[in-house]
Specification:
Helix content: under 10%
Number of helices: 0
Strand order of the largest sheet: 7-8-9-10
Strand content: 35-45%
CATH architecture of one domain: 7 Propeller
Order of helices and strands: EEEEEEEEEEEEEEEEEEEEEEEEE
Distance between the termini: 34 Å
CATH topology of one domain: Methylamine Dehydrogenase, Chain H
Length: 295
């Protein structure tokens, strides 16, 4: 992040952006005080994969601010104020050599370039889901962006400024939606986590899998890549102190649920290990380290 060959930890709080080194010390110029309180998490972009980082954050004054890696506001960022507060994360996509920075407020979607200038304009007559960002479907034959409205209807925005929709059922306004190729067939699927239920649909509207939890999940689903192109879905139900790992066919991964209260990470702590380590937060600020088989 800071171009010194070392790792740092970047995160945001309601009023500041923080960059901390491996020893727990603030990097020079941090923390950065925001111009207004943040309304969604920060996003980190590296447009050309050259470590020329950009940090973007929406704030409660309806502004979207762009910072460089040293915590300074980027000159030339010309985005005009959003019409309403932006509550979902902001994404960047490179499509056919062009950059799209995409996000939405309650009623409007924004598609802008690196300078914040509008690239696409859409007239929308619905309310967007507050929690869910706009995705780009790299697996579809035409350039299209995907998100949901507050009823869970899947909404498509095309690069020719056309719109379309797909109704997969009724969902609450608090649903989570993710565009992800769950079964590794080369085509993105529609993942919903709502109330106590996880559902995955394919592009033909077929329900591919479902799983019912004993309590309502408390954060968005997270996806993990396992050997042999297997995708697993992680879900947290903190009210019952349980974490789940769901296979792509809807079955529960062996050994789960486990104790845990927070979103968790899965990876190798030792390059010679033949098992994954799962790290999750628990009570009294403790971290738990579980061994997880690769299959």
């Amino acid at each position: 992040m800071y171009k010194n060959g070392k790792l740092q930890y970047l995160f945001s709080s309601k009023n500041q952006i923080h960059l901390i080194d491996r020893l727990g010390n603030y990097v020079d110029k941090y923390p950065v005080k925001l111009r207004a309180s943040a309304t969604a998490p920060i996003s980190l972009f590296d447009y050309s994969n050259n470590k020329n980082y950009r940090i973007v954050v929406p704030c409660e004054n309806n502004e979207v601010y762009l910072y460089d890696g040293e915590g300074d506001l980027v000159k030339g960022w010309e985005f005009c104020t959003a019409e309403n507060i932006v509550t979902s994360s902001i994404n960047h996509y490179g499509v056919d050599g062009e950059d799209y920075i995409v996000f939405h407020d309650k009623y409007k979607a924004y598609f802008v370039n690196r300078k914040g200038e509008s690239k696409l304009e859409f007239l929308t007559k619905f309310s967007f889901s507050e929690k869910n960002p706009i995705y780009f479907d790299y697996t579809y034959s035409k350039d299209r962006f995907v998100t949901t409205d507050e009823n869970g209807t899947v909404r498509f925005f095309y690069s020719n400024e056309k719109q379309d929709s797909l109704d997969l059922g009724e969902f609450s306004k608090d649903h989570y939606f993710v565009l992800k190729d769950v079964d590794s067939d080369g085509s993105a699927d529609y993942v919903f986590l709502d109330n106590n239920r996880l559902e995955v649909y394919n592009k033909q509207k077929k329900l591919m899998m479902a799983y019912d939890f004993e309590a309502e999940p408390t954060s968005e689903p997270v996806f993990y890549s396992f050997p042999r192109n297997q995708i697993k879905i992680g879900v947290v139900c903190s009210s019952v102190s349980k974490i789940y790992l769901i296979n792509s066919d809807g079955s529960l991964f062996d050994g789960f649920p486990l104790y845990g209260l927070t979103p968790f990470s899965i990876g190798y702590l030792n390059s010679e290990s033949n098992k994954f380590n799962l790290i999750v937060g628990g009570q009294e600020n403790l971290l738990y380290n579980y061994e997880v088989n690769e299959n």
